[in-house]
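User: Teach me something about this protein's shape.
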Amino acid sequence: MQLKRVVVTGLGALTPIGNNIEEYWNGLVNGVSGAAPVTYYDAAKFKTRFACELKNFKATDFLDRKEARKMDRFTQYAMVASDEAIADAKLNLDEINKLRVGVIWGAGIGGLETFQNEVLNFASGDGTPRFNPFFIPKMIADIAPGNISIKNGFMGPNYTTVSACASSANAMIDALNYIRLGTCDVIVTGGSEAAVTIAGMGGFSAMHALSTRNETPETASRPFDAERDGFVLGEGAGAIVLESYEHAKARGAKIYAEVIGGGMSSDAHHITAPHPEGIGVIAVMKNCLENSGIKPEEVDHINTHGTSTPLGDVAELKAISEVFGDHAKNININSTKSMTGHLLGAAGAIESIASILAMEHGVVPPTINHSNVDENINPELNLTLNTPQKRDIKVAMSNTFGFGGHNACVAFKKLDE
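Assistant: First, the predicted structure itself:
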C-alpha cells in the first residue's frame, strides 16, 4: 500500500502576540514579547504574577453569546482558530464529503477554569450540590473537537490527544497518519489551552516550574540564556488543516507545505524532569527523520521545545548535537516560546505554524531575551538570538515534550511538486 502525501492548506492562530495568523507572524518576526502582569485575577499573593495572556480578545466578537457561555475558554479559543484555518483553506462545506473530514485536537488540561470555578462555588456554599448543567461538557478535554465538528458537520474521526505539552503535536501526527492511510481526505488539527487561572498558575508555581521575574516579565521567557529561571505560562490555540495532496490539488487549494513525517518517544525517566542526556529527545528526532525519509543534513530549521528551564534547554540542545553531528551548527535553531510563552497543549500547533510560516516567508523568527551565554550550551549552535534571520528553508522540524516524558516531533517540507 502506497501512503498518500499530506499537505497543509489552512492555518489559524490565537496567541499572546497576535489574534490571527497575520498578527501572529508579525509578532514573531518583530520579536514581540507576550508576557505581562496577570489581569484575569488578583495575583498579588502569587510567587509568579505574570503570564502570556491573550490581548484584546473577546469571545463574543466571534461566537454567539449563548454558545460562548456554554464553552470554557480553551474551547472558545479552539473555535476561533479553527474557523480561521477552515476559511483560510477555502473548504467548500457544501461540496466536500464530510464523512471523510475529521477533527483531531490536542489539549493538555482542558477546561481547567470551569473545573476550578465550579469547585470553588460548591465549597463556598452550604454543601448543597449546585452545579452548572454545562459543567461537564465545558470541562472535558474532548469537547473542543466535538464543537468544531458539530459546527461544520465533519463526521470523520473526532477526538482529543492528551500528552501534556506534546498534545497538539501528537494530534498532528495522528491526523497525518489517518490521511496517509486513506481514512480521511481532510483533518482539522491543532490544539488549545487556557490554563492562566488561579489553579493553573498556582499549581505550576508550586512545582517551581515558572519564572519569577516579576519586575521585568517581558524578559522572563529567555530560552538558552544562562539566567533563565523557568517558563512563562501562555494561552491560546493553533489550528492546521491537513489534506491529502491529491484532494488539495483537485480543488485548487493553496498549499503551504508538505507534512513529511512525525516521531514519538518516551523519556521513561521522570514525571517532570527531562533525561539529562536527552535520550528520549534523541530518539524522537531520529524517529521523525526515519519516518520522514530524510537525512539529518537535509534539515534547515528546528523550532525547539525550548521552554526556558535550566535543565530542559540544555538537554534538548545536547540531543540536537548528537542527532545532527557537524550539521547541527548549520541549522537555524530557535524557540518561539521566548515570545509566546508556553501554551502547553497548544504549543506543538502554534510552533509548527511558526515553522511553516518561516518556510513560506524565508525568515526564521528570533529567540528573544538572550543576553547571557550559558557555558553548558555548544557555542557553535545558531540559536537565532534576538534578531530574525533570512533563510531558504526546505525542511523544518518542530519539537514538543510533555510532563510524563512524552516526546513528539513533526517535520515539514517545502512542497516538491
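Now, about its shape. The first strand starts at residue 6 and ends at 14. The chain has a mean pLDDT of 97. If you'd like, I can walk through any region in more detail.
User: That's plenty for now, thanks!
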